[in-house]
Amino acid sequence: MSHSPNQVSLPPLPFIPDELIEEILSRLPVRSLLQFRCVCKSWMSLISDPYFVKKHLQLSTQSTNLTRQRIILTDTTAEFHLKSCPLTSLFHNPSTICEDLNYPVKNKFRHDGIVGSCNGLLCFAVKGDSVLLWNPSTRVSKKSPPLCNNWRPGCFTNFGLGYDQKNDDYKVVAVFCDPNVFFAETNVKVYSMASKSWRKIQDFPHGVTPYQTSGKFVSGTLNWDANYAVGNSNSSLWIIVSLDLHKETYNEILPPHYEKEECSKPSLGTLKGCLCMNYDYKKSYFVLWLMKDYGVRESWVKMVTIPYLPNPEDFSYSGPYCISDNGEVLLMFEFDLILYDPRDQSFKYPKVHSGKGWFDAEVYAETLLSPIKH
């Protein structure tokens, strides 16, 4: 075929091996990948492949610079609104713009509680009788069947979300508590994302009742701060109950040696993939411990002691939600996010636009994981 004198002959496009394309795409954020599914059928097939989803998940969750981490916030208005913003922006910018999230359950006047997050999946308790698994990055969700427990006044359901690595299955554990029964009877059920159904497992150990906080996922286990009734007396002990998600057996995790007589009831959380514990000391400090080697009592380390600023309302800190590589701790106080830097004992107050105060928060990773299939 002849070329006109003014026509320029372009060199052929370079050939890029499929393996290199996969390596490049697996390092991109979810929003880009959702758009790139429309490039061609082969990219659509690759980005939807379970192997690729797991590879992207591994790279996202192993990143230590917080670039793939976001925080979801529920505001304090009468209507149920959810916002999301990048964690890096809170740590490095004086102001952050939040994005509105379209919560899948359409009931704007009911505030569903955040149970927790795991590998990009968020779990919400829906009226205490079912849960919603939702990936806000891909906007895919799945609601569980109802628990159908015999609820009566005083009862509550405590949930926890975690991952059973040996069965490659995500599980929600529901602990139904009836304090009206002597020694506080519990009824424990597990929802498996693979089977999409609830099944009953062994109850909590006799006399042990979890407080109304969610189970915290660490190292294949869910962990609850719980109350253990001592004999027939009115006294009780604060303990940590651990449930192995593969074996579905219970264990007790020993807390550090802390100032029991002079502090508030401790609470559990997770930081950097480790179990953490916090409490108020003499209503003057917020003390944070971290268990660096899960299950080993000697590995508890006192991470930071955060002073309280004078406050007439007597609020407590909530969280912590995250700790940066340089030691800054992200918490909530008086419905606002704050950053504490232990290096100079200073506070920063990151401004979050489009929000007037926060009721709850949870950190999650941006992944492609689907609550419907994986």
Automatic annotation (TrEMBL):
InterPro entries reported for this sequence: F-box-assoc_dom_typ1, F-box-assoc_interact_dom, F-box-like_dom_sf, F-box_dom, SCF_F-box_component
Keyword Ribonucleoprotein set for record: no
Keywords from the named record: Kelch repeat, Repeat
Protein name per its UniProtKB record: F-box domain-containing protein
Coiled-coil intervals: none
Domain F-box: 10-56
Pfam families: F-box (PF00646), FBA_1 (PF07734)
PROSITE patterns attached to this UniProt entry: FBOX
Domain of life of the organism encoding this protein: Eukaryota
